[in-house]
Design brief:
This protein is an alpha+beta fold and 272 residues long. A hairpin with a 5-residue loop joins β2 and β3. Helix content is 27%, strand content 29%. It is globular and about 55 Å long.
Length: 272
């Protein structure tokens, strides 16, 4: 069985509190990027475990720590599933803040439910995914949502960016989540993020911010230059996504955007 885990962008990201469990409470609007996908193949295999192989972009962790295997183990502990072979073909850049690894894990959960006829509910799968990674549950329903808590508390949001064009740029450098959080100072604001998002997109630049940007931009100034270049090319809103290192711009629809940014990863699509 083949699955195509897509990625996401964060529009606004507030780090509002440090939790007693060592995590942070956040507030962010997450939006699926439908066309930028990894490929995951899951097939039955002899035995009672999971064999994992990868191709495409190099995966920056040992196979036994890959989120795909964590997803398998999470289901195997609770449900009678047998052996599988998981092949991940990696296309979504890592260390980008695009949630590629989280999407892979969520699609493995959904795929195993289908492969073994478990018919798990969305709520059950979201609970399983929340234990795998902070934003993994988002990719179960895979629709725009306001995420709070660690990123696992999801509230569907009806804002539409249909007719806009999305441009994503990811340089060779990456930013780890640990690096980004190390310099963050949690803070609460009086104005809810959803209220800010209700304004026209052209006004988001004034109020919709990613709290990681000041920290990450100091260590990776190229990312700030890329964000500013998005505005120079006509973006109505531009930001780093997640904890970086991908930067995106939202443009009014029409012709494709000039994507010559040098030797970097570039992707664009019409938003739906």
């Amino acid at each position: 069985m083949l699955f195509f885990p897509n990625c996401k962008i964060n529009i606004g990201l507030r780090v509002v509190a440090r939790r007693a469990d060592g995590y942070h409470d956040i507030e962010t609007w997450m939006v699926p990027v439908r066309g930028l996908c990894d490929i995951v193949e899951i097939v039955h295999a002899p035995g009672d475990g999971a064999e994992f192989v990868s191709s495409g972009l190099a995966v920056d962790c040992p196979p036994e720590k890959n989120l795909c295997l964590r997803a398998y183990r999470a289901l195997h502990e609770r449900f009678p599933i047998g052996g599988v072979r998981i092949h991940l073909h990696k296309i979504v850049p890592m260390g980008a803040g695009l949630g590629g690894g989280s999407a892979d894990a969520a699609f493995v959960v959904k795929g195993l439910s289908e492969l073994f006829g478990l018919n798990l509910s969305r709520k059950c799968m979201e609970e399983l995914c929340a234990g795998i990674g902070s934003d993994t549950a988002f990719f179960v329903a895979n629709r725009p949502a306001l995420a709070t808590g660690r990123g696992e508390i999801l509230e569907p949001v009806d804002f539409s960016l249909r007719g806009k064009r999305l441009l994503i740029v990811k340089p060779a450098e990456s930013v780890s989540t640990a690096e980004a959080y190390a310099g963050i100072a949690p803070r609460r604001t009086d104005r809810p993020l959803l209220e800010c998002l209700n304004a026209p997109v052209g006004r988001w630049r004034e109020t919709v911010r990613n709290d990681f940007e000041p920290v990450v931009f100091r260590a990776h100034p190229q990312l700030e230059r890329l964000r500013n270049e998005m505005y120079r090319r006509g973006a109505v809103y531009a930001s780093m996504t997640g904890s970086g290192a991908a930067v995106y711009g939202i443009f009014d629809g029409g012709a494709p955007i000039d994507s010559d940014f040098g030797d970097v990863f570039v992707y664009q699509e019409d938003m739906v």
